[in-house]
DNA sequence: AGCCTATTTGTTATCGATATCATTGCGTGT
DNA sequence: ACACGCAATGATATCGATAACAAATAGGCT
């Protein structure tokens, strides 16, 4: 910066101003400095600026998996809104492990982000302590935690699954199965399972048709195997709710290979409104939880909170998921 | 850090040492300091350390899209290897726009990463200048650029597609179509198209069956529409090569809806070895370019380059993609 | 014990941008 | 021409960790 200042015949302070939005500096001086900087190949040093100002412009974002279109959409929503406002997303993924989340939280906090976005409301004790001490806005997403650490942008996985089961019942299903995990590492999958159980009880139906698809991530391949197991164990099943569309598509593939007609022999539903749900033949009935909107809303909260700095009340935004009807549950009587 | 030093009865320098791997410090003192730090809720300030040492521990990674399982795998490969060695990935996506890449390059360089990983070899003039001046290791991935800016870990999209066409020809296909884009914004898609054209010429076949699937990202939905167009325009086609598996699956879905049998009426192949390729019914013949390995190798290069610091020769690793046979091109005569 | 070496700990200056306050310049109205 | 007020620019100290060097302590040997 000193070199640029000399080249432009001004002080370093003026050069500093030339690279900031708000600064009071004449347009002429600024362009002169920018020119000199370009000529010298100077690139602004954000590490020094962040250090001095205590504002890094980083927003730490922690998701379970990077290889998941739903979480990717949330990151896109966050990133698109934040990057337009001069923020940079610091992304990390936990592979659905709480200890890994704790590590990431510590690593990220040492980078002094201006806010942090987490997935879900389950964190290790130590992670919670670190977060509380950090004194930055916290946003928990994708869930409605009972005791939120900060702001929340989420939805009730349980209720969404209840709605889905309700739809299956409406379509005449009675012997409904659930494919998904029961792992503590996937609280959202678990909530959906709970929603399934609660809905079945509500309708007075037998809720014992449960196929454990294993540890997260539960993807197409696990869904396919789980469907094999289901057909083996409960051959009289007339509808299947899956923990995700990927899982459901795997189940669909097994059905196709076995010559089982969907929805004729068996109705099928997924969760998440992945692209595969609309493109699959038959298209899959699913739940759209608007993952992109989750990210955008979380970003908005961060922008507002950091604008009116000071102790802000905890925002709580509950997204209302929507049922997307596909042909996989359409029975034209 | 001063507070921790006082609490532990040592100097700040000793506290600094307690938080570093290599430092010479007695185990007893270290644990005493760590304890004090935990008690006080102290979190190491990486912004200050990075500023002082000129080593941020950041590796900037720029990919076209975050919502793509192939690129996600490369990021995972990178991230997994790098995070084990104390590095942190700074991820950005361009939406397949070179200008956005330029912006990201500038933003990332201002964060002083220790290395930068790019997708492909096409960059704006200004981006190239910035990168050259940055004096950090550069790795270009997913392509084999003619004039690389630094290290390369990639493969020939053209050759891979040639191999795929060769397979289709072996299986008896003659009227082969290609579904994909021809956009400058997707050099990899373009190379695959070129590979298709070259292979068709090599086999003395008519290469005019080209369906433009639009701008990237080309996903399932575009693939489905493109297949509609193909069936309309060239109804006598006997095999289709798609620019990606997502595109191919879209095409497959259209075929299924139209009652066209794959591979009976039409052979179909994709690219990328996405999970959908193995789970789809029929499974899709595809090309595995080992995206995770690309990331891992790129990470290795960075680790080695930064270890023996100094001007290192440009590494060039060419991945050999493999043909994965699926039932979508299996004709049992 | 006394000496020597290796290990551990302490002191001081420093990285590059910016907050803060001081100063200069410039246009406007009378 | 002068005073006034606002805009533009400059000087200096500072953020928190660490490099570089200096000092102190511990441990091993005769």
Describe the structure.
The structure is a homodimer of 333-residue chains. The first copy, chain A, is elongated. In chain A, helix 7 links the parallel strand 3 and strand 4. By secondary structure, the first copy, chain A, is an alpha/beta fold. Chain A has helices at residues 2-8, 12-18, 27-40, 46-53, 69-83, 98-110, 125-134, 157-170, 187-202, 220-233, 245-257, 275-279, 291-307; strands at 58-63, 88-93, 115-119, 138-141, 151-154, 176-180, 210-212, 239-242, 267-269, 286-288, 316-318, 322-324. The model of chain A has no long low-confidence stretch (mean pLDDT 95). The N and C termini of chain A lie far apart (75 Å). At the A-B interface, helix 4, helix 5, strand 2, helix 6 and helix 7 of A face helix 4, helix 5, strand 2, helix 6 and helix 7 of B. Chain A binds a DNA duplex (30 and 30 nucleotides) through helix 2 and helix 4.
Topology at a glance:
The structure is a homodimer of 333-residue chains.
Chain A: H1 2-8, H2 12-18, H3 27-40, H4 46-53, E1 58-63, H5 69-83, E2 88-93, H6 98-110, E3 115-119, H7 125-134, E4 138-141, E5 151-154, H8 157-170, E6 176-180, H9 187-202, E7 210-212, H10 220-233, E8 239-242, H11 245-257, E9 267-269, H12 275-279, E10 286-288, H13 291-307, E11 316-318, E12 322-324
Parallel strand pairs in A: 1-2, 1-3, 3-4, 4-5, 5-11, 6-7, 6-8, 8-9
Antiparallel strand pairs in A: 10-12
Helix pairs in contact in A: 1-2, 1-3, 2-3, 5-13, 6-7, 8-9, 10-11
Chain A binds a DNA duplex (30 and 30 nucleotides) through helix 2 and helix 4.
């Amino acid at each position: 910066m000193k070199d640029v200042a000399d080249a432009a015949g001004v002080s370093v302070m003026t050069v500093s101003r030339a690279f900031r939005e708000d600064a009071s500096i004449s347009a002429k001086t600024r362009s002169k400095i920018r020119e000199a900087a370009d000529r010298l190949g100077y690139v602004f040093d954000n590490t020094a600026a962040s250090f001095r100002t205590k504002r890094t412009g980083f927003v730490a974002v922690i998701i379970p998996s990077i290889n998941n279109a739903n979480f990717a959409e949330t990151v896109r929503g966050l990133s698109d809104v934040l990057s337009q406002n001069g923020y940079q997303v610091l992304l990390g993924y936990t592979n659905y492990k709480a200890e890994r989340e704790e590590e990431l939280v510590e690593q990220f906090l040492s980078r002094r982000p201006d806010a942090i976005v987490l997935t879900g409301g389950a964190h290790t004790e130590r992670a919670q302590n670190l977060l509380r001490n950090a004194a930055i806005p916290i946003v928990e997403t994708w869930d409605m935690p009972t005791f939120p650490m900060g702001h929340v942008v989420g939805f009730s996985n349980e209720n969404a699954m209840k709605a889905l089961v309700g739809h299956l019942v409406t379509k005449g299903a009675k012997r409904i199965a659930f494919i998904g995990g029961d792992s503590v590492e996937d609280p959202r999958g678990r909530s959906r399972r709970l929603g399934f159980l609660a809905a079945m009880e509500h309708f007075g139906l037998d809720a014992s048709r449960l196929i454990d698809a294993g540890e997260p991530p539960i993807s197409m391949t696990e869904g396919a195997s789980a469907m094999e197991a289901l057909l083996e164990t409960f051959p009289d099943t007339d509808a299947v709710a899956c923990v995700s569309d990927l899982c459901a598509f795997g189940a669909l593939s097994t059905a196709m290979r076995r010559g089982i007609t969907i929805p004729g022999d068996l109705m099928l539903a997924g969760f998440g409104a992945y692209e595969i749900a609309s493109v699959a033949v038959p298209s899959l009935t699913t739940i759209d939880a608007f993952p992109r909107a989750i990210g955008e809303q979380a970003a908005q909260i961060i922008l507002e909170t950091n604008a009116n700095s000071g102790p802000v009340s905890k925002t709580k935004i509950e997204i209302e998921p929507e049922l997307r009807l596909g042909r996989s549950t359409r029975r034209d009587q």
